[in-house]
Amino acid sequence: MIDFTTFLTEEASEKKLLHLEHVEDHVINSGFDGFAHAYHSLQDVHDKLHGKGNKVKVTTKYDGSPAVIFGHDPKTGKFFVASKSAFNATPKINYTPEDIERNHGHAPGLVSKLKLALEHLPKIAPKKGVYQGDIMHAGIKSKANPNGDVEKEGGKLHFQANPSGIRYSTPASSSEGKYIAKAKIGIAVHTKYNGKNLADMEAEYAPDLSEFTHHPDVHSIDTQDEFQNAHMSPEQHELYQKHIKAAADAFKATPKKAYKIFTGKKIGAHADGTTKFEHEHHADIIKTYINKTVREGTTPTVSGYKSHLKDVHNKRIAGVKTAKTIGAKTDQMHADLNHVESNSDHFNSILTMHHHLQQAKNQLVQSLSAKPKYQTAMKDKATGTYKPTKPEGYVVVRNNRPSKLVDRDEFSRNNLNGIRT
Asked: Number of H helices and number of E strands within the chain?
């Protein structure tokens, strides 16, 4: 197939892990270069599933909470824990339980988890380095562990870090079950930060964690063990090849200038002082529209996007009062809708790429989910019972640039529709 290597020169690694993008959304976020990154990320995972060596890394995406930054402060050498506020302009760094109370006393649940992390994570963490992970559980509840949240039922241990998220289960008699039964805290570490001070640190995704040690008080979940259990069936391989080729064909047929349709051009200011664009900056709105189609189980189309865009503008118009501002926002709506109509072929091409990248990705997710480490389930709001589901998804890291591999037709639809309780 096509060699897109020369198109990757503009890629940049994210400095902090604040938000992960769906792999197919790169074509919307970064256009020409974004497609190349998405295409290569998928191809590398596909090749690795077929035993071909490459440098891409894939980790399981665990549905934990809260995210915790921890390790030894590179300036003082002191061990600390923090929420994502570690990277705020005014960071909240916790070296002692008193620091946690002072910084987070308004959130008792967060205080409890951070105190557990402060007490137990030094037992496994390297003597140098700063890391990020998701807290998955607080051990089995007992007199010695009053904050525990692991449940034992039906011969299995169950934990669910997010009350509205995925529940993970494993037989109590399994090696993982025995590990959990002894632990006071469970964590899935997925990121390392490198630098001489916290403010300037840059993220290293899917890092080598071999310097971590083991301790019975900490259930450390390995996020990098997917390919040993993965299996891609001939049917999945055929569908993958069909969709990745269709995505590449759409890419080859699309001129580079087409990707500029998403970027708004500033041409002045509105009466209320806000920036006036020649047309809408479409990337965020079209991703919102795609999420809407996920909820509805429909396929994104240009006509559907125009309808969604019109609704967005009408809400903006309804939110203002003066005739002058209403007129300006109405003019902007017509300009944006005309822009979509006059560039409908380009919008359609990019939506086509997005669709086929997503469908190719789904085959990889199915393959990676063949034999998961844990049984996973989500609670159905209507019945109150847990229904089996695939893992939340995976993260592919290429050139230290992470992307989500999530089956949006299943997990994301459940999430967006609020099926989780």
From this structure: 10, 16
> Does 205 have pLDDT greater than 90?
yes
CA distances from 341 to 9, 31, 171, 278, 331 (A): 32, 19, 56, 14, 15
200 DSSP 8-state letter: G
Q: Give Rg (Cα) of the chain.
A: 24
The DSSP H or E segment spanning 332 is helix 323-342
Query: Per the structure block, which two tokens stand in for 152?
Result: 């034992």
Helices 302-318 and 282-296: crossing angle in degrees, nearest 10, is 110
What phi, psi does 88 have (nearest 5°)? -70, 165
Going by C-alpha positions, the residue among 365, 148, 150 that lies closest to residue 243 is 365
pTM of the model: 0.87
130-153 per-position pLDDT tens digit:
999 999 999 998 888 888 999 999
Greatest distance between any 2 Cα atoms in the chain: 71
C-alpha distances (whole Å) from 260 to each of 21, 29, 287, 328, 400 are: 20, 11, 16, 24, 26
Nearest CA to 197 among 94, 68, 74? 74
Task: Verify cis geometry, omega within 30 degrees of 0, for the bond prior to 388.
Answer: no
- Residues 200, 205, 211: CA angle, nearest 5 degrees: 95
Q: Are 328 and 275 in contact (CB under 8 A)?
A: no
Half-sphere exposure of 212 (CA within 13 A, CB side): 25
Single-letter residue type at 320: V
Pick the closest to residue 139 from 164, 112, 166, 165 (CA basis): 112
- Residue 2: per-residue pLDDT: 46
337, burial (CB in 10 Å: exposed 0-12, middle 13-18, buried 19+): middle
Q: How confident is the model at residue 188 (pLDDT cuts 50, 70, 90)?
A: very high
Can you read off the two tokens belonging to residue 9?
Answer: 């020169």
